[in-house]
Specification:
The structure is a single chain. By secondary structure, this protein is of the alpha+beta class. It has a single domain, classed as Beta Polymerase, domain 2, CATH 3.30.460. The protein contains eight helices and seven strands. The strands form two sheets. Strands 1-2-5-4-3 form a five-stranded mixed beta sheet. Strands 6-7 form a two-stranded antiparallel ribbon. Strand 3 (90-93) and strand 4 form a beta hairpin. Helix 5 packs across helix 7, helix 6 (155-167) packs across helix 8 and helix 7 packs antiparallel against helix 8. The longest helix has 22 residues, at 186-207. It is globular and about 55 Å long.
Length: 208
């Protein structure tokens, strides 16, 4: 089992390359799923926003992710989910669907839903966010992605924020200001402050 996991991780790493959309080569199954999803959604006039690990990759912190996470507007979600239910090879799974041919899942985050269990933050409408146009689907700007990560309050997302800030160290003050404006609660803004402090502390240790 461990050997299989290592082999899968090495195969995934071999598909990653900076400078490409989501830092993935076109042959990567997650990139191919994004291509397919963009076509199906485009036929409905819907443009999902890629968030989660692929967006993190796109902004310079390469890490493995098992699924494609997308944000959709509440008014669009129903039509897109119905289309995927009717599409051959797409099967409902968890909070989204799995493409059986590619072996990859897409998880849907819907405007208005809580960003995580127990959170008081909710997902915004993707049309309200500043985005980066990339093929096949856009990603949030770096400050917007950081805000979305802070909203969730999960350890994995906290780690992503810290690593993204470290990789864009010269922009930390501006990123904090812009991300803070997106956050709705004092608790989330305090979490952002702590993550900024953590990133700066790790940068100082690296220099010493």
């Amino acid at each position: 089992m461990l050997a299989t996991s290592i082999a899968d991780a090495l195969e995934a790493l071999s598909s990653m390359e900076k400078g490409r959309p989501y830092s993935l080569r076109r042959v990567d199954p997650k990139r191919r799923l994004a291509d397919d999803l963009a076509i199906l959604a485009g036929e409905l006039g819907i443009t999902p926003l890629v968030i989660g690990g692929l967006a993190v990759n796109h902004h310079g912190y390469l890490r493995l992710t098992a699924a494609v996470d997308v944000l959709v507007a509440k008014e669009s979600a129903g039509a897109l989910l119905r289309r995927l239910r009717a599409e051959p090879g797409w099967k409902p799974q968890g909070e989204g669907f799995k493409n059986s041919a590619l072996g990859v899942s897409v998880d849907f985050c819907v405007e208005g839903e809580k960003t995580a269990p127990g959170s008081s933050e909710t997902f915004p409408n993707p049309s309200e966010l500043e985005t980066v146009d990339t093929e096949p689907l856009p990603v949030p700007s770096l400050s917007e992605l950081i805000a979305l990560k802070v909203m969730s309050g999960r350890a994995r997302d906290d780690a992503d924020v810290v690593e993204l800030l470290k990789r864009h160290r010269a922009r930390i003050p501006a990123l904090r200001r812009k991300a803070s404006k997106r956050l709705r609660t004092p608790e989330a803004r305090e979490r952002l402050r702590q993550l900024v402090a953590r990133a700066r502390a790790e940068l100082r240790r690296r220099r010493s």
